[in-house]
Design brief:
This protein is an alpha/beta fold. It has helices at about 15-25, 40-45, 50-65, 110-125, 140-155, 170-180, 195-200, 220-225, 245-255, 270-275, 285, 300, 320-325, 335-345, 350-365; strands at about 65-70, 75, 165, 185-190, 205-215, 215, 230, 265, 290-295, 310. The chain has an eight-stranded mixed sheet with strand order 3-10-9-8-7-4-5-6. It has a two-stranded antiparallel ribbon with strand order 1-2.
């Protein structure tokens, strides 16, 4: 008869402890394949537990393929193969990682109370919609909200179908390479945000670094590059802090228009905060919505933990996106998409931007 000490099990349910004990005997070969397990009533009486406890343990063994029930006969051990060799000696205790601490740049301006109320309202109002799989480009409710916000706050005109939602800038950089092709050469600012080059190179693309001047990419380097795609941050490029004036931004667009197949990737991660008054006109708007792929992220404008960003595609690239990238699932949870859409449509996002801008102005940032 099977005998186990089930007292030292901590908070584990009794039937789980019994299941684990029998499973270990089966895995170790103590119980041979084809051997009949004791009847539920007999084992319950022997161990001093209820029949329900034994029944639960046997059911788990059957569910995981360690035993099989035969009608009017009981449970029999199934062959499970040779067990993996156990590591020698005693296992070390878990080395727990230190938890993250609040610090500079961790979202100290984020309106937590307002965001929590928005989440609760969305859960209450949307209900079953939150369990539906997101379209690959993102939920329509968020794409609509972003398009309305850009037109209202930035003066940017783009149809919601041109908006693609992703989990932050890095994921969207990779989508750009998949859409345009890794055989192209991607020119980036030097210096620039390190993840730009890392993602492009990691995606199999070749990168050319163009040196920065006091107003943006140096004209001579831009004219000489053999790149097909120019990735720039016109507003407050990091880490140089350079903001390209109108003449330089037109130079970028003229470079793109000089040869078929060229595109500019406009990385606009900081423009909501760096310009006095209303943010300056984007490259996307200056180009009339063509030859410019516009990227932005809420990780900067809301909080680093808000892993949501978006890109605006020119109409000419929509078919290429659907064919080469459209099969990838949207990586942003539906609940967060609906909550952000509500946050934007209720005007909370723009009020948040205005509050942060006033604080930055008062602090002389």
């Amino acid at each position: 008869m099977l005998t186990y000490d089930l007292h030292d099990r901590g908070r584990e349910p009794l039937y789980c402890a019994l299941y684990r004990a029998i499973r270990e005997d089966i895995a170790a070969g103590e119980l041979a394949p084809g051997e009949r397990l004791p009847s539920k009533r007999a084992l319950a009486e022997h161990l001093g537990v209820s029949v329900v406890t034994v029944e639960g343990a046997y059911r788990l063994l059957a569910d995981e393929g360690y035993a099989a029930a035969r009608e009017r006969s009981g449970y029999y051990v199934l062959p499970v193969g040779a067990p993996a060799a156990a590591p020698a000696g005693r296992r070390e205790p878990l080395r727990l990682l230190p938890e993250e601490k609040e610090g500079p740049g961790t979202g100290e301006d984020f309106p937590y109370g307002l965001w929590c109320r928005t989440l609760r309202r969305v859960i209450s109002e949307q209900g079953p919609r939150l369990g539906v799989r997101s379209p690959n480009e993102g939920c329509a409710v968020l794409r609509n909200a972003i398009a309305r916000y850009l037109l209202r706050y930035r003066g940017m005109y783009a149809q919601p179908e041109q908006v693609v939602v992703g989990s932050g800038s890095e994921q969207l950089y990779g989508a750009v390479v998949r859409m345009l092709g890794r055989e192209r050469v991607y020119a980036i600012e030097q210096p620039s945000y390190g993840q730009i080059e890392a993602v492009y190179v990691g995606s199999g693309a070749r990168v050319e670094r163009l040196p920065m001047g006091p107003d943006g990419v140096q004209s001579q380097a831009l004219a000489a590059t053999g790149a097909d795609v120019l990735h720039v941050t016109p507003f407050h490029s990091w880490p140089s802090g350079v903001t390209a004036p109108a003449a330089k931004r037109y130079e970028y667009l003229q470079w793109a228009a000089a040869r078929p197949g060229r595109f500019v990737v406009e990385d606009d991660f900081d423009s909501e905060f760096t310009m006095p008054g209303k943010p300056l006109e984007s490259l996307y708007t200056m180009a009339g919505g063509e030859r410019v792929i516009y990227l932005n992220t809420f990780s900067r404008s809301l909080a680093p933990s808000m892993r949501m960003g978006y890109m605006i595609l020119p109409p000419s690239l929509m078919d290429a996106y659907r064919q080469r990238v459209g099969m990838y699932s949207c990586s942003v949870p539906v609940l967060e998409q609906y909550a952000l859409a509500s946050f934007i449509d209720q005007g909370h996002f723009e009020r948040h931007l205005n509050r942060v801008r006033r604080r930055m102005k008062e602090a002389g940032v």
